[in-house]
Specification:
Length: 109
Amino acid sequence: MKYTVIILAAIACLSLLVMAGFADDTQKELPGESLFNEYCLACHPGGSNIFDPEKTLHRRDLETHHIKTPEDIIHIMRNPGPQMTRFDKDSVPDRVAREIAEYILNNFK
């Protein structure tokens, strides 16, 4: 299991590097996008979930798990399950957590 997680994380990182090479520099970044990319993208590329495919960031899956508001997402960031990194207020201040949560809700339909 440990090696599977490491391999999946490595694949995600490599994917990000490849995607960065094809990025269009003329596109404007959405509010919260750079914060999402910094804190979340490695495990949630494209709104997916590399550890639990049934718990994506897409609205359908969020609502299935009773996640409907920015506060719901922030609660999970602060108190995650066993496979997710915990983002406390020192590592991700409330303002930043809210921007990330709003980005998720507005962009992963």
